Amino acid sequence: MNMSVSSLKTVFWGATLVAGFAIAPAWAQNQYPPPSPYPQQPPPQGQYPPPQGSYAPPVLPPEQLDQLVAPVALYPDGLLAQVLTGSTFYNQIPDAASWANQHSYLNGPALASAIQQDQLPWDPGVLALLPFPQVLNYLASNMGWTQGLGNAVLAQRGEVMDAVQRERQRAYQYGYLRDSQYQRVVADPNYIEIVPVTPNYYYVPYYDPRVVYVRPRPGFFVGGAIRFGPGITIGAFVPFGWGGVGFGWREHTILVDRRPWARSWNNRGVYVHPYAAPRGHYEGPRQEHHELRGPAHYDERGHHADDHRRDDHGHDDHGHDRH
Questions:
Q1: Rounded Cα–Cα distance for residues 73 and 168 (Å)
Q2: Nearest to 180 by CA among 162, 199, 194
Q3: What one-character-per-residue DSSP string does 12-69 give?
Q4: Other CB atoms closer than 10 Å to residue 91's CB: what's the count?
Q5: What is the distance between the alpha carbons of residues 198 and 184, in angstroms, rounded to a whole number?
Q6: What number of H helices and E strands is found in the chain?
Q7: pTM score, two decimals?
Q8: Is the Cβ–Cβ distance between 23 and 64 less than 8 Å?
Q9: 20 pLDDT higher than 70
Q10: Which tens digit of pLDDT belongs to each residue from 229-273?
Q11: Within 13 Å and on the Cβ side, how many CA atoms surround 63?
């Protein structure tokens, strides 16, 4: 697909946020860019101000919500919950993506320590995504979509969760969503959960929404439609909301630190989630205590030229043992 990111933003924003807009099926198949290779550079910082005013976003019908959640509906439950909550602070995403890119040579406890030392001013819902720079880059590179997703989460959380389940059911029905070495798919008649094979060890799936939610053509190999990035351990990030995160699908609740996340459009200016490890809010310029490595130092997979990175389990970028 050769559409520019700015063109995609314009098409998507006009289609999803104007009440009553009818989406033609052929157009809908082209509204989402396929996942872009990491790293990408986010748009200029500070260009997305926090939501202002009391006007609620238009109520989106199920068809538009399905398309809105399509790029992330197949994320494992814990990561998806963090994406949904983090997207409601969309104005913080570009800065967070830049910080994550500059510190992507850190992982595990070293990254958690850097987050603490730099006294980052963002909401814990955004801090929780810092171990996943490729996810933050996707959110920052598609800001119109990210803002639309965040607004829908605030105004229509239950309907957003229902849309995720409809998309998962389609991907499961057509054979794309299955157990693998990277994740476990728990399907019952009403809900599909996606959880890590190893607790606290996440792989980010990459897929084309135009493929995985439609019936495969004869002879198409469905097993190659969903790819996975390197494994990421999140045990060190429990203080940032990873101490029990997921969904209460039946109750339409997002759970962060095993507590319902209750931010909504009406209370978005005052709600403070009761995190298990409360964190102070820092104002003013952050203090940088670490080496910054810009995109020129990275290869096509987002790794520094001087790094031979290995995750906390001794695996390489594809989950293979390097020992």
A1: 7
A2: 194
A3: HHHHHHSTTPPPPHHHHTTSSPPPPPSP-PPPPTT-SPPP-SSPPPPPPPHHHHHHHH
A4: 20
A5: 9
A6: 11, 9
A7: 0.74
A8: yes
A9: no
A10: 999 999 999 888 898 999 999 999 999 999 999 999 999 988 888
A11: 11
Between CA 183 and CA 144 the distance in angstroms is 29
Q: Which is it for strands 259-260 and 253-256: parallel, antiparallel or unpaired?
A: antiparallel
Neighbour-count burial of 108, counting CB atoms closer than 10 A to its CB (0-12 exposed, 13-18 middle, 19+ buried): middle
DSSP helix/strand/coil, 315: strand
Cβ neighbours of residue 186 closer than 8 Å, sequence gap 6 or more = 192, 193, 194, 195
Structure tokens at 162: 């229902």
Rounded CA Rg of the chain: 19
Residues 137-178 pLDDT 10s: 999 999 999 999 999 999 999 999 999 999 999 999 999 999
Q: Where are the alpha helices (DSSP H) in the chain?
A: 5-17, 25-28, 62-69, 77-87, 93-102, 108-117, 124-127, 133-141, 143-155, 157-173, 209-212
Q: How far apart are CA 202 and CA 81, in angstroms?
A: 13
Packed helices 62-69 and 157-173: angle between N→C axes, nearest 10 degrees: 70
